[in-house]
Write a structure and sequence with these properties.
Elements (H helix, E strand, L loop, with lengths): L20 E2 L8 E2 L18 H4 L3 H7 L2 H5 L3 E3 L5 E3 L12 E2 H9 L13 E4 L1 H21 L9 E3 L6 H11 L5 E4 L2 H10 L8 E4 L5 H12 L3 E6 L4 H12 L5 E4 L24 H13 L6 E5 L9 H20 L6 E3 L24 H19 L5 E3 L4 H4 L3 E11 L1 H10 L4 H6 L2 H16 L2 H20 L5 H14 L8 E5 L3 H4 L1 H6 L5 E3 L9 E6 L8 E2 L13 E3 L10 E4 L6 H4 L10 E7 L6 E7 L4 H7 L4 H17 L7 H16 L16 H13 L3
Parallel strand pairs: 6-22, 7-8, 8-9, 9-10, 10-11, 11-12, 12-13, 13-14, 16-18
Antiparallel strand pairs: 1-2, 3-4, 4-5, 6-15, 15-16, 15-21, 17-21, 18-19, 18-20, 22-23
The structure holds pyridoxal-5'-phosphate.
Pyridoxal-5'-phosphate binds next to helix 13.
Length: 716
C-alpha cells in the first residue's frame, strides 16, 4: 500500500482520465467534471451534430465497414446513409437499388398503415441476387471454356445442405433451368427434397447423391433414376458398391455411378480437414482401382461415369485449386483409359467468399481469387491433363454452395440497449451517500480510503487503482468475517469499480435481439467472421464501440470481433449512439445465406426468425415484398423438443381454475381470463423480444402513400 505521505511528491501523469474528477471532500465520491471516458473512437472525436460529424459521409462508413471489399457488387451505402442492395450486381441501375431501411420500415410498420406488422430479427432474402450469383457462376465457366476452346460444357449442381430452405432450392431450380443446373443431396431427406424440387428442372439436370448410404438411400436414388432423373450415385466408401449392385439387381435399374476420390492435395485452412490423404471422405487410388475391377468383371464398367472430389470449402488460392483439380483430372483420364464410361468431372464445392474483403489467401475468411479466375483455373487444369493424355474433355460439374447462396440473405436485428460499464458504475455511485461508509469505516480501512481519494484527486490513475483494488480485497475479507455490512461493501465496490474503470476505448456491451446460436452459429462454433454493420445513419459519424451480446443466457452468445478497416474489428463494432432517439436501431449481418440457417440450434428455444422475400420492381421504392413468412412461435419451438403446447396450455388452464376455486379474493374471474390470455399469446408469439417498432410512427407519410403501389405486387 503506497503511503499517503507520498501524496505531496506525486506528479500528475500527462494524460489521465481521472484528471477530470474533482474531490469535493470527505464523504463523497469524486465527481466527473466531463464524461469519464468520452466513448469516441476516432482520434479527432466529435459526436453526432458536431462539426466533426458534419464531415462524415456515407463513403467514410463504406470504407470503415469495408463494404466494397466484401459487399461488391451487391451491397453499397447509399446517399441517404442506408445500406442498399444492388439486386443485379454491377448491372444494377441506380434507380433499381433497394434501400434496406425502406424494406425494414415496411415490414415492421403496423398493418393499419400498410406494413406487415412483423418484427426483427428478420431474414431478408433477395432472389434477384441468387439469380445473379447462379448466372455469374455459369457465365464464368462458359467464358473460360470459350476462351480456352474447351470441348465440352459446364453443368453445375447446388448442394442443398448449404441452405435447404424450400424457396432457396425452388429458386435455384427455376433460375438454373436454362443451364440444366441440378442439385446435390447428402442424405435421404435431402434426396427427397431434391427429387421433388427437380420435377421442375431441366431433364438433363444432374441429381448427385453424395454422403454415406444404406440400402434405403440407394433404393431411393435408383427409384429416382427410374423416374428419369439424371441421378448419379457417388460412392463414398468401397462397401457402398455392393449395396448399389444388389439394389439395382433387385429393382432392375442400371445405376449411373460416380466415385469420390480422396486427393493427396491438401488445403491447409480450417475447411481443409476434408481433404488430403487423411481426409474423412473418399476412396484411395487402390480402392478406386478395386471398384473398376469389380465393375469390369460384372460387365458394368459403362456405369462408372463420374469422378467426384472436394478439396474443402473456402479454397484459399488458385494454386491449391489448380493442384487439386490437376490431380483429379489425371485420375479421370486414367479411368477413361481403364475403360470406364466416364463423362463428368465433379469438382465439388470450395469456391470461396471474401467475408473480410481483403482478397487474401492466408485467412479462412477470405480468398485471393475472383469467380472468373476460379473458373479459368479449373478449366485449364482439366484441359491440360486431358490434352496430355489424349482424352475427350469431360462435362465439368461444380457443387458450389457457399458462393451461390451467401449473398442473397441478409439478417436484420435490432439493438435492445447499450450497456457501458463505465457509465453505469458512475450512475450507480453518483447516487450513493458515502458519509455512513466513512463514519463507520473500520480503523484499518480509513488510510486506504484516503489514499484512493487523494490519488484520484491528483489524477494518478494507476496508483488510485492499485489502492482501490487493495481496499476492495480487504473489504471482502472483512465482510466474510462479519465485520462489514452489505451496504458498506456495495459502496466500496462501486467506488473501486469507478476508479478502476476499463481503459479508455474499451468497448461497451450492446444487447441485441438475436440468438447467435440460432442465427450466426458458425461464429460461435468455428470463429467464422461475417460482416456486421448498422444499416442506417451511415452518413453520421459513429461514436460508440461495442461488442454484441445476444439474448441467450450463455457467455458464448456474443460477437466481439468484426470486419472493419481501422483495427481489424478487435475494439468492437462502430455504432451510433441511439438511446436518445425513439426509433429502433438496426444492424445487419451479411453473407450468412450459406450454412447458418441449417446449422442454427435451439439454445434457449429461440427459433427461426421472420423471413421476407424482396425483389426489385419498378415503382417509387423499386422493390416488392413477394413473400412474408412468419418465424417459429414459442409453441413451434416447444413442439420441436417434444412438448405438446395444447396439453401444456390445458394444464395451465386447470391450474388457473384450481386457483379460482380456492376462492382467493385477489383472484377473480377477470384476472383469471387475463392470465389465460397472457399464456395463450406467449405460446403464439415469437420467442424474441417484441419490438415497439411495429407502430405507425415509424412509417412516414411518404411511405404510407407508396404502400398502395407496392401492394399491387405483394403476394403475402
Ligand atoms: C461434398 C461437398 N460438396 C459441396 C460442398 C459445398 O461446398 P462450398 O459451400 O464450399 O461450395 C461441400 C461442403 O463442404 C461438400 O462437402
Amino acid at each position: 500500500m503506497p503511503p499517503l505521505a507520498c501524496l505531496g511528491v506525486v506528479e500528475s501523469p500527462h494524460h489521465n482520465p481521472l484528471r477530470s474528477y474533482g474531490l469535493p471532500g470527505e464523504g463523497s465520491l469524486p465527481v466527473p467534471l466531463v464524461p469519464f471516458f468520452p466513448n469516441t473512437f476516432f482520434a479527432n472525436g466529435g459526436g453526432v451534430g458536431t462539426a466533426a460529424a458534419a464531415a462524415w459521409s456515407a463513403a467514410h462508413s463504406s470504407d470503415l465497414y469495408r463494404v466494397d471489399g466484401w459487399g461488391a457488387p451487391y451491397f453499397v451505402v447509399n446517399e441517404n446513409g442506408n445500406v442498399a442492395v444492388r439486386p443485379h450486381g454491377a448491372k444494377t441501375l441506380p434507380s433499381e437499388e433497394i434501400d434496406v431501411m425502406k424494406v425494414v420500415k415496411k415490414v415492421v410498420a403496423s398493418k393499419s398503415v400498410g406494413g406487415l406488422g412483423m418484427s426483427a430479427p428478420l431474414i431478408v432474402r433477395f432472389p434477384d441476387v441468387l439469380k445473379h450469383r447462379l448466372e455469374s457462376l455459369q457465365s464464368a465457366f462458359d467464358s473460360a471454356m470459350q476462351t480456352q476452346s474447351y470441348g465440352s460444357f459446364f453443368q453445375g449442381v447446388y448442394p442443398v445442405k448449404c441452405n435447404q430452405d424450400r424457396y432457396v432450392v425452388e429458386n435455384i431450380v427455376e433460375f438454373g433451368k436454362p443451364y440444366s443446373f441440378g442439385l446435390e443431396a447428402g442424405s435421404k431427406p435431402e434426396l427427397l427434397l431434391a427429387m421433388a424440387s427437380m420435377c421442375k428442372a431441366s431433364p438433363k439436370a444432374l441429381l448427385v447423391c453424395n454422403g454415406y448410404k444404406d440400402e434405403e438411400y440407394v433404393s431411393l436414388a435408383l427409384t429416382a433414376r427410374r423416374m428419369n432423373f439424371n441421378c448419379v450415385i457417388v460412392l463414398e466408401q468401397e462397401e457402398e458398391l455392393d449395396v448399389v449392385l444388389s439394389v439395382s439387381r433387385k429393382l432392375s435399374v442400371r445405376p449411373v455411378i460416380g466415385v469420390r476420390a480422396k486427393l493427396r492435395t491438401k488445403h491447409g485452412g480450417h475447411f481443409g480437414t476434408t481433404s488430403g490423404e487423411k481426409g474423412k471422405f473418399g476412396l484411395t487410388s487402390l480402392e478406386i482401382v478395386g471398384i473398376v475391377r469389380k465393375l469390369q468383371k460384372l460387365g458394368m464398367l459403362d456405369c462408372l461415369q463420374l469422378l467426384h472430389f472436394h478439396i474443402g470449402s473456402q479454397i484459399p488460392s488458385v494454386e491449391i485449386l489448380n493442384d487439386g483439380v490437376s490431380e483429379a483430372a489425371y485420375i479421370y483420364c486414367e479411368l477413361v483409359k481403364l475403360g470406364a464410361g466416364m463423362k463428368i468431372i465433379d469438382i465439388g464445392g470450395g469456391l470461396g467468399i471474401d467475408y473480410e474483403g481483403t482478397k487474401s489467401s492466408s485467412s479462412d475468411m477470405s480468398v485471393s481469387y475472383s469467380l472468373e479466375e476460379y473458373a479459368a483455373a479449373v478449366v485449364k487444369a482439366v484441359r491440360v491433363a486431358c490434352s496430355q493424355k489424349g482424352v475427350n474433355h469431360p462435362i465439368i460439374c461444380s457443387e458450389s454452395g457457399r458462393a451461390l447462396v451467401s449473398h442473397h440473405s441478409l439478417l436484420v436485428f435490432d439493438v435492445v440497449s447499450v450497456h457501458d460499464k463505465k457509465d453505469s458504475v458512475s450512475a450507480a455511485v453518483a447516487g450513493m451517500d458515502l458519509k455512513p461508509l466513512v463514519d463507520d469505516l473500520p480503523e484499518e480501512l480509513v488510510g486506504e480510503y484516503k489514499s484512493v481519494m487523494a490519488y484520484t484527486a491528483m489524477g494518478d490513475c494507476h496508483r488510485s487503482q492499485i489502492c482501490a483494488e487493495h481496499m476492495k480485497a480487504r473489504c471482502l475479507d472483512m465482510f466474510k468475517e462479519g465485520r462489514l455490512g452489505l451496504e458498506q461493501l456495495a459502496t466500496v465496490d462501486g467506488m473501486c469499480d469507478l476508479v478502476s474503470s476499463p481503459p479508455a476505448g474499451s468497448p461497451a456491451v450492446c444487447h441485441i435481439n438475436l440468438s447467435i446460436f440460432k442465427s450466426i452459429p458458425d461464429y460461435w462454433a468455428i470463429g467464422q467472421l461475417f460482416p456486421v454493420m448498422p444499416i442506417q445513419r451511415l452518413n453520421e459519424r459513429p461514436t460508440v464501440r461495442a461488442v454484441l451480446s445476444d439474448l441467450t443466457c450463455d457467455s458464448d452468445g456474443k460477437v466481439d470481433t468484426f470486419i472493419s478497416s481501422d483495427d481489424n474489428g478487435t475494439r468492437g463494432l462502430a455504432l451510433h449512439s441511439f438511446e436518445e432517439r425513439s426509433e429502433p436501431y438496426y444492424l445487419g449481418m451479411f453473407l450468412g445465406g450459406a450454412y447458418q440457417e441449417a446449422l442454427g440450434g435451439l439454445h434457449n428455444l429461440f427459433g427461426v426468425p421472420n423471413v421476407v422475400h424482396v425483389v426489385q420492381s419498378s415503382g417509387p421504392h423499386c422493390f416488392s415484398i413477394t413473400r412474408a413468412l412468419p418465424g417459429q412461435t414459442s409453441a413451434d419451438v416447444l413442439r420441436l423438443m417434444m412438448h405438446e403446447p395444447n396439453m401444456m396450455f390445458n394444464s395451465l388452464k386447470c391450474r388457473i381454475e384450481d386457483s379460482l376455486q380456492q376462492m382467493d379474493d385477489d383472484y377473480d374471474l377477470d384476472s383469471a381470463v387475463s392470465n389465460l390470455n397472457t399464456i395463450a399469446s406467449t405460446f403464439n408469439s415469437l420467442p424474441y423480444l417484441s419490438s415497439s417498432s411495429s407502430t405507425s410512427s415509424f412509417f412516414t407519410d411518404d411511405e404510407e402513400e407508396s404502400h398502395d403501389h407496392d401492394q399491387d405486387h405483394d403476394t403475402w
